[in-house]
C-alpha cells in the first residue's frame, strides 16, 4: 500500500479482514500528512449513483463501530445533515433525491425552512424553500479516523512503515513483481496506489498515467460563538456554494468556488509535508459573502484558522478505483473532497476486488478504466477536472453536456453534421449527434416531457425516431468501441468468455454477454466472425477500455491470441427503417438478401464496407463499417432524398420500444442474464464458460417493461417502484416511445411482481404515477420488421 492517508489505511484494514495480513503500508511522511489531515470532515451519504451511496452508507456504519473495534475514537458525530433548497431547481433535485433514498433504505425527509432552522439555529431562512434532512449523516476528525483504521489493520497483522519513500515499481511481462524504496526493495505481487494527490507520480513509476489534478480547497474555522454553539447537523447550501459544520462552539465554513485553483501541475514539491497553500481571500470572497447571508453571525465571527489545502480531483469529480493495465498495480485515489466520507466503502470494495476478483457491488462509475487514453494528456484532464470542480454543487440535469476540452474526437462526417445543425453530445471524448435542429420544425412540441426530462429535449427527437419506424433514418455511430481478436486461440478464448455460442459460420454476428464468476454481466456486445481465427467485437462508446481490460485479463500468454483496439480504424453509419433496402440496394452490386445477424464485405458506391445486418432499433437495416478516410464519402452517398439523419436520443427511444438493454443502466456486473431477460443468449449446453455455474435460471428478481399512465411523466433512472405501499424496485432507464405513444420505464422487481398486467407505481419527483407491467417488446413483438 503506497500512501498513509485515510483511503490507504482503510484499504489496508479491509485487506487484512480478507486474510491478506502479509501486507505493508508505506508512507513517505507520517500518517495523514498528505491531504487527509486538512479535510473538513463532512460525511454525507446520498450520492449520484447506487454504488456511491452504498459506499457512503457502509462508511457510516463502519465509523460508528470503529471505537468499539479498536478502542480508538474516530471522532464520529452522527448528528444528521441538512441540504438546503434555495431555488426551485434545487427543490426538484431534493425531491428526486428523496425518491432515490427510498430505494436505498436511507432515512431522508424533506423539511420546511423553519424546521431546518430548528435543527441548525444560526441559519437564516431567507430564500430557503425547503431542505433535505438525513439523520444518519455527520462529521468526524480525519486524523482520528485514519489512526483508528490503521490501528485496526495492525491488530489484524498488517504492517505500517512511515518515513519510507517509494522510488520504483518493478514489473515483469506486464505484472508487478516488487517495489523499490529509499530503504530497500520489497517483493510483492500487488501494489495499491493510495497516494492521493501524489498518485499520478507513483503511477508513473509503473508506466501508468492517472487523470488526477490537485486543487486548493479552502475553508475556515471560527472562534467559538457567544454563546458557544452546541454540536449541530452539517449544513450544505449548494445554491450558494457553501457548507457548514460545528467545531468547538464555532463553525467550519467552506465551499466550492466557480474558479478553482489547480496546483503543482509539474508534480508535488519535495518536502510538502502537512503543509498548506497560501491564503487566497479573493477566491473566498463570494463564498464568505454567501456564508454571511445564510448565517448572519458569520459577519462578526472571529476567524481562528484558515485552510487552503490541496486535494486530488479527477475529470468527473469521483474516485479512481481498480486495477490498471499493469497487472497487480491497483489504484484507490482521487478523493475529490469526499474521500473521507467514502473511505470505509472504498476499503471494502478494494479489499473484495483484490482478494476475490470482484467487489460485491457494481463499481463501473468509479472504475479507473472509465477514462480512456485521451486523459493521458494533462491539458485535457485539467480542462475536464476544472469544469467538474467549478460545477461541483450545480444541479445535474439529465442529458446535460459538459463543454470543456471539446471537440476532441470527431467522426469523419462531422462537417456534414454541423451543416445539418446537429446538437452534439459528448461521450468518451467523441462528439456525437443527440439530434438535428434542422429536423425540429417538423416535430410536435406538445410532446415535451414535463420536468427535468424536458430540459435537454427537442421535437426533432420524435421526427427522427418516427423516420426510422416509417421510412428510413441514418445514424452516425462511429464512436462504437471496436476490438479485434486474432489468432488460433481466439475462438477458444471467446467460447470461454462469452455466454452465447460463438463457434458459428464465418459472417455470423452473435449477440452475447461476458459474465463474471458470480454470473453478473461484465460486458454486453456483439461478435462478428470475419474468418476462422478473426473476430470483430463491437461494444458501447464508453465501455471499450473496460471490455478490453476484461478480455486482456483472460488472454492466454502463449501468443495464440492478439487483441487490437480498432475503434479509430472504422467509421460506422447505421441505415435503419422499412425503406433501408430500397435506399441501399441501388448503391451496391451485391444483393442485400443476406439474413439478419450476418455480415458481408461489399462496396457501397466506391467505398469498401463491412455491412452487418444488425440493429439497435428493431428495424430492417445495416451497420456499415468503413475505413474513416472513406467516411464522408459514404455518409454523402447514404443521405439521399427520403433519408432522415438521426441522433442518439432517437436511438434511445427506439431501443426502449424494442426492449433492447443498455449496459451500465439496465445491465451491470451485479445483474445476471436471466434477471435481465437475456436467457436466450446463454447457451449452457455449449460447455464451460465463466459464470456458467453461477447463473440461476429462476432468479428472485426480473427486469420488467412498464408503461406509465401519464405519457409526459418520464422516468430518468433510479426512481423507486411501488407495489401497494411497499417499495419493490428501482427504475434502470426510461423515456418516451414515439411509435407506441407511451412513457416507458424498465425496472428490476421481485419475480412475484413481474407478471404481465401487474399494477405498480413509479415516483416521478414526488408524484406516484401508475404503471403496468407489459409484455415486451412493445413494438413489433414477433420481430418481423427487422427480418424482412
Give a brief outline of the structure.
This protein has 788 residues and is of the alpha+beta class.
Please, could you describe this protein's structure?
The chain has 788 residues and is α+β, with helices and mostly antiparallel strands. 23% of the residues lie in helices and 28% in strands. The chain has 16 helices and 38 strands. Strands 3, 4, 5, 12, 13, 14, 15, 16 and 17 form a nine-stranded mixed β-sheet that branches. Strands 29-30-31-28-22-32 form a six-stranded mixed β-sheet. Strand 37 and strand 38 form a beta hairpin. The radius of gyration is 27 Å and the shape is globular. The mean pLDDT is 96.
Summarize this structure as a short list of keywords or feature phrases.
16 helices; 9-stranded mixed beta sheet; 788 residues; 6-stranded mixed beta sheet; alpha+beta; 38 strands
Give the termini distance in whole angstroms. 58 Å
By DSSP (H or I, 4+ residues per run), the number of helices equals 16
The quaternary structure here is single chain
Instruction: Report low-confidence residues grouped into runs of 5 or more.
Output: none
Total number of β-strand segments?
38
Largest sheet: 9 strands, mixed
Write the layout of secondary structure elements.
Elements: H1 6-17, E1 24-27, E2 42-43, H2 50-70, E3 81-85, H3 88-104, E4 109-111, H4 113-119, E5 130-134, E6 138-139, H5 142-155, E7 159-162, E8 166-172, E9 175-181, E10 184-187, E11 191-193, H6 199-204, E12 213-222, E13 234-237, E14 242-247, E15 250-255, E16 261-262, H7 281-294, E17 303-313, E18 320-323, E19 329-333, H8 339-356, H9 378-390, H10 414-419, E20 422-427, E21 430-436, H11 460-470, E22 473-476, E23 481-486, H12 490-497, E24 509-515, E25 521-531, E26 534-539, H13 544-553, E27 562-565, E28 571-576, H14 580-584, E29 599-604, E30 607-612, E31 621-626, H15 631-638, E32 644-646, H16 648-658, E33 701-708, E34 720-723, E35 726-737, E36 742-750, E37 759-764, E38 767-774
Parallel strand pairs: 1-7, 3-13, 11-19, 22-32
Antiparallel strand pairs: 2-6, 3-5, 4-5, 8-9, 9-10, 12-15, 12-16, 12-17, 13-14, 14-15, 18-19, 20-21, 22-28, 23-26, 23-27, 24-25, 25-26, 28-31, 29-30, 30-31, 33-36, 33-38, 34-35, 34-37, 35-36, 37-38
Amino acid at each position: 500500500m503506497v500512501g498513509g492517508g485515510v483511503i490507504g489505511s482503510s484499504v489496508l484494514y479491509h485487506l487484512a479482514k480478507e486474510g491478506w495480513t502479509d501486507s505493508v503500508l508505506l508512507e513517505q511522511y507520517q500518517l495523514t500528512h498528505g491531504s487527509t489531515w486538512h479535510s473538513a470532515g463532512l460525511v454525507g451519504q446520498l450520492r449520484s449513483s447506487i454504488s456511491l451511496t452504498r459506499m457512503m452508507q457502509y462508511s457510516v456504519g463502519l465509523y460508528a463501530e470503529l471505537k468499539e473495534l479498536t478502542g480508538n475514537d474516530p471522532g464520529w458525530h452522527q448528528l444528521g445533515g441538512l441540504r438546503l433548497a434555495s431555488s426551485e431547481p434545487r427543490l426538484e433535485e431534493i425531491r428526486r433525491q428523496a425518491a432515490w433514498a427510498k430505494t436505498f433504505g436511507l432515512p431522508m425527509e424533506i423539511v420546511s425552512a423553519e424546521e431546518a432552522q430548528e435543527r441548525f439555529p444560526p441559519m437564516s431562512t431567507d430564500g430557503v424553500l425547503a431542505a433535505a434532512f438525513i439523520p444518519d449523516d455527520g462529521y468526524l476528525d480525519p486524523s482520528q479516523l485514519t489512526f483508528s483504521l490503521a490501528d485496526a489493520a495492525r491488530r489484524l497483522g498488517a504492517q505500517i512503515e512511515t518515513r519510507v519513500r517509494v522510488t520504483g515499481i518493478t514489473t515483469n511481462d506486464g505484472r508487478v513483481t516488487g517495489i523499490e524504496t529509499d530503504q530497500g526493495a520489497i517483493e510483492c505481487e500487488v501494489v495499491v496506489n493510495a497516494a492521493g494527490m501524489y498518485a499520478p507520480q507513483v503511477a508513473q513509476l509503473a508506466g501508468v498515467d492517472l487523470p488526477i489534478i490537485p486543487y486548493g480547497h479552502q475553508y475556515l474555522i471560527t472562534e467559538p460563538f457567544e454563546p458557544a454553539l452546541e454540536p449541530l447537523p452539517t449544513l450544505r447550501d449548494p445554491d450558494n456554494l457553501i457548507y457548514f459544520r460545528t467545531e468547538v462552539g464555532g463553525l467550519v465554513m467552506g465551499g466550492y468556488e466557480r474558479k478553482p485553483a489547480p496546483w503543482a501541475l509539474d508534480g508535488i514539491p519535495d518536502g510538502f509535508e502537512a503543509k498548506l497553500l497560501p491564503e487566497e481571500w479573493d477566491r473566498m470572497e463570494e463564498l464568505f459573502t454567501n456564508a454571511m447571508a445564510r448565517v448572519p453571525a458569520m459577519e462578526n465571527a472571529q476567524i481562528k484558522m484558515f485552510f487552503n489545502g490541496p486535494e486530488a480531483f479527477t475529470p468527473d469529480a469521483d474516485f479512481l478505483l481498480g486495477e490498471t493495465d499493469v497487472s497487480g498495480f491497483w489504484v484507490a485515489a482521487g478523493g475529490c473532497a469526499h474521500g473521507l466520507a467514502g473511505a470505509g466503502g472504498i476499503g471494502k470494495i478494494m479489499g473484495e476486488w483484490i482478494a476475490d476478483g470482484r467487489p460485491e457491488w457494481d463499481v463501473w462509475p468509479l472504475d479507473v478504466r472509465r477514462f480512456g487514453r485521451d486523459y493521458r494528456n494533462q491539458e485535457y484532464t485539467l480542462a475536464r477536472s476544472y469544469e467538474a470542480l467549478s460545477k461541483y454543487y450545480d444541479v445535474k440535469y439529465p442529458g446535460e453536456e459538459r463543454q470543456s476540452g471539446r471537440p476532441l474526437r470527431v467522426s469523419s462526417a462531422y462537417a456534414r453534421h454541423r451543416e445539418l445543425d446537429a446538437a452534439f453530445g459528448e461521450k468518451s471524448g467523441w462528439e456525437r449527434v443527440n439530434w438535428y435542429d434542422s429536423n425540429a420544425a417538423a416535430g410536435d412540441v406538445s410532446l415535451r416531457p414535463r420536468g427535468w426530462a424536458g430540459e435537454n429535449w427537442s421535437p426533432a427527437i420524435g421526427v427522427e425516431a418516427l423516420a426510422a419506424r416509417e421510412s428510413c433514418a441514418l445514424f452516425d455511430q462511429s464512436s462504437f468501441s471496436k476490438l479485434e481478436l486474432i489468432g488460433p486461440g481466439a475462438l477458444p478464448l471467446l467460447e470461454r468468455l462469452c455466454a452465447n455460442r460463438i463457434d458459428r459460420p464465418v459472417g455470423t454476428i452473435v449477440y452475447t454477454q461476458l459474465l463474471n464468476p458470480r454470473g453478473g454481466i461484465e460486458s454486453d456486445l456483439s461478435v462478428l466472425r470475419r474468418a476462422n481465427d478473426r473476430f470483430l467485437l463491437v461494444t458501447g462508446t464508453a465501455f471499450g477500455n473496460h471490455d478490453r481490460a476484461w478480455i486482456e485479463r483472460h488472454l492466454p500468454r502463449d501468443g495464440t491470441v492478439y487483441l487490437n483496439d480498432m475503434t479509430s480504424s472504422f467509421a460506422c453509419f447505421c441505415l435503419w427503417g422499412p425503406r433501408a433496402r430500397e435506399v441501399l440496394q441501388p448503391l451496391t452490386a451485391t444483393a442485400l438478401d443476406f439474413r439478419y445477424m450476418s455480415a458481408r464485405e461489399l462496396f457501397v458506391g466506391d467505398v469498401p464496407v463491412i455491412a452487418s445486418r444488425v440493429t439497435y432499433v428493431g428495424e430492417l437495416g445495416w451497420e456499415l463499417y468503413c475505413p474513416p478516410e472513406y467516411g464522408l464519402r459514404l455518409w454523402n452517398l447514404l443521405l439521399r432524398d427520403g433519408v432522415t439523419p438521426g441522433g442518439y436520443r432517437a436511438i434511445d427511444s427506439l431501443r426502449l420500444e424494442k426492449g433492447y438493454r443498455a449496459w451500465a443502466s439496465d445491465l451491470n456486473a451485479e445483474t445476471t442474464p436471466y434477471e435481465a431477460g437475456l436467457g436466450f443468449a446463454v447457451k449452457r449446453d455449449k460447455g464451460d464458460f465463466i459464470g456458467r455455474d453461477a447463473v440461476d435460471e429462476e432468479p428472485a428478481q426480473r427486469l420488467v417493461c412498464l408503461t406509465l399512465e401519464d405519457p409526459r411523466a418520464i422516468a430518468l433512472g433510479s426512481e423507486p417502484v411501488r407495489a401497494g405501499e411497499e417499495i419493490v424496485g428501482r427504475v434502470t432507464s426510461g423515456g418516451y416511445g414515439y411509435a407506441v405513444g407511451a412513457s416507458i420505464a424498465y425496472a428490476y422487481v421481485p419475480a412475484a411482481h413481474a407478471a404481465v398486467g401487474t399494477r405498480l407505481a413509479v415516483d416521478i419527483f414526488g408524484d406516484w404515477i401508475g404503471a403496468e407491467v407489459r409484455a415486451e417488446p412493445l413494438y413489433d413483438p414477433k420481430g418481423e420488421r427487422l427480418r424482412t
